[in-house]
Amino acid sequence: MDLKNKGMLVVFSGPSGCGKDTVLDKIKEQGYVFDKTVSVTTRAMRDGEINGVDYYFISKEEFLEKIKNNEFVEYTEYSGNYYGTLKSEIENRVSKGGCVLLKIEVEGAENIKKAFNEAVSIFIFPPSKEELKNRLLGRGTETEESFNIRYNTALKEMAKAPQYDYVVINDNVDLCAETVCGILNAEKTKYSRMQTIIDEILNK
Q1: What are phi and psi of 159, to 5 degrees?
Q2: How many CB atoms are closer than 10 A to CB 202?
Q3: What is the reported pLDDT for 1?
């Protein structure tokens, strides 16, 4: 029996240094399958990144043209660069019953929730301010000025946590990933998302 439940959009956010990418990698290791959309950005590509996999890397001019054409469901400017999520990236995947996960900044998450009120929002929170500082400094790529900007921005983003459906503290990455998987599994089996399957079973 090929039964599919209603697709789900998940908004995944957290301040720089909270370990979002590491948590997502652990979720994959635990076997959770989701469709991760590829965001568009004007920032420079970093070593090891692949265009069309990590981001769609485009020029500022191209980005502004897409804004003009209303191709984004959300976009924001962060640390001097533009980031955006294409409407087509979400709609194509959700329509096929997939679990779409958007890893985006707090401002973009607010816009997504306005456009898709059924979206499930999860905020990854560092265990302490001191640990956040250590993680940012541990990268070894921050000047004093850039560190201060990132740290102050992170504090402002952390203050937005009450706007999310769920907040998970990343003190232990394995436990954090396990908790996120539990949230996703619970949300996936809500009646509102299972109704199509239930109706099909009852009507057979």
Answers
A1: -70, -15
A2: 7
A3: 41
- Joined tokens for residue 81: 């660069």
Contact 86, 72 (CB under 8 A): yes
Confidence of residue 134 (pLDDT cuts 50, 70, 90): confident
User: Do the beta carbons of residue 83 and residue 93 sit within 8 Å?
Assistant: no
> Region 62-79: what's the mean pLDDT?
91
Residue 12 CB burial class (10 angstroms; 0-12, 13-18, ≥19): buried
**Can you tell me the distance from the alpha carbon of 12 to that of 167, in angstroms, rounded to the nearest whole number?**
10
What are the chain's domains? 8-37+98-202 (3.40.50.300)
Name residues whose C-beta falls within 8 Å of residue 100's C-beta, 6 or more positions apart in sequence.
Answer: 7, 8, 9, 10, 34, 35, 36, 37, 89, 90, 93, 94
The amino acid at residue 160 is: K
Strand ranges inside the chain, DSSP E: 8-13, 35-36, 40-41, 56-57, 72-78, 81-86, 99-103, 120-125, 166-169
